[in-house]
Structure prediction request, 269 residues.
Amino acid sequence: MIVLNKEIISIKTDQDAVFLRNRVSEYAKKIQMGLVNQTKLLTAASEIVRNMLRYAGKGEVLCEVLSQSVLQTGIRLTFSDKGPGIKDVALAMKDGYSTGKSLGIGLPGTKRLVNIFEIASQPGKGTKVTITKWKNG
Amino acid sequence: MNKIPILKMGDFLLVTVQVDLYDGLALGLESDLVGMINKHDSRGVLIDISAVSIVDSFMGRILGNIAQMSKILDAHTVVVGMQPAVAITLIELGLPMTGVHTALNVEKGMELLKEKLLPGAYLSNEPDDSPE
Prediction:
């Protein structure tokens, strides 16, 4: 797996989410990702950024363009924050569960939208979510 | 602060979202719309999202909230022009857009609103000069 491009975007306000979406959309267009996959990736990014802002207040996103083989290229986004973390990750991944006032579809919904979804969290230290979407995934 | 303009068209309110939505903007639209319905006694709200490239769970919920709030204020809401990719994503995300009326474009949305208001809207618009 080769990383073709790297960029770190810091997130502080909900308007930064728009900036992030535009940057990711530029990368997605550059590797000619289809419109549906692009929309899924951007929606997934939007969900995770919201969680980051709501629970941690701020954080940063590492945006990478990946190439696995000649045919398979994609985008990997790594969201890391130093927020309160998630006590029970398995529970947070369940549909309809939320500690906030939301619908509880953010994390499980995001998982359905991308190809690879990884989440690691330590209570009190922070959360790291990695999502990967292949161009033809 | 950014705001989404709301246009008054007779008994209806017309909103065309031409910018990228973020949470604060969507919340502002929700409260502005409810205020405008009350101010102008509007009977219908038409929201055009044809220029919106993504709708996530929060924005979807705001659209649902607007529909429910306006229903309590006796106004119907129609969301029009959703891009196919957005519709696919919303369903895979698992967002139930229940209670939100939809139409393919603004024209069809207007027809739908007029149909819903047919008895009331047409009577109130016609001058009452029928012979006794």
Residues 35-56 of chain A form the longest helix (22 residues).
